[in-house]
Design brief:
By secondary structure, the protein is α+β, with helices and mostly antiparallel strands. Helices cover 28% and strands 25% of the residues. It is built from four helices and eight strands, in the order ββααβββαβαββ.
Length: 179
């Protein structure tokens, strides 16, 4: 898996682009806002508390991109440069046949179909470009918006799997129909 050059993705309304250091203010917000992080349990050492933590996180994203460990996109409206959310594929299996999707979005942009539009493109990228067999999503069992988003986009709850690191999470999956 090679993520260079960075694969920008455009939809009718959105541009999914590389996250850069100048996005640190939005990354800080997305990783520290009480509404955005309500259902996310991070260990203390993974919390983003200030701009230097946000920059460090962006540097990690770039390192993961270079080593093919994960790929994260900043979500922007096509007519603007400022990101309004992020979406990523990460936690690739050893054989690179499955990955986990993660996402967040500034609250004022929620409930407008933006994340659904971005998720559709990432599913397509994962299945067609990366040739993944399965994409997983771990979400808090009380996060109704995330569960609704996943179900709307073809994910199903895998009741036989448990998140051993977080008992509050449920695991959703979508399989590549062409594999």
């Amino acid at each position: 898996m090679k993520f260079k050059p960075f694969p920008e993705i455009q939809t009718e309304r959105l541009l999914l682009r590389e996250i850069v250091k100048t996005d640190s203010d939005v990354i800080l917000f997305l990783r520290s806002d009480e509404i955005v992080t309500k259902f996310i349990e991070r260990p203390e050492n993974r919390k983003t508390k200030d701009l230097s933590d946000a920059i460090k996180f962006i540097e990690e994203l770039n390192e993961y991109l270079e080593t093919d460990k994960s790929i994260s996109w900043g979500i922007t409206l096509r007519n603007t440069k400022k990101i309004i959310g992020t979406i990523c594929l990460w936690n690739f299996s050893q054989k690179n046949n499955s990955a986990e999707v993660g996402y967040d979005l500034i609250p004022k942009y929620q409930n407008k179909g933006i994340m659904s539009e971005a998720l559709k493109m990432i599913i397509d990228f994962g299945f067609k470009t990366l040739k993944l067999d399965t994409i997983e999503a771990f979400t808090h069992y009380e996060n109704e918006k995330s569960i609704k988003l996943l179900e709307k986009n073809g994910f199903y709850l895998n009741e036989s799997r448990k998140d051993l690191e977080n008992k509050s999470n449920v695991i959703f999956e979508i399989e590549n129909a062409s594999s």
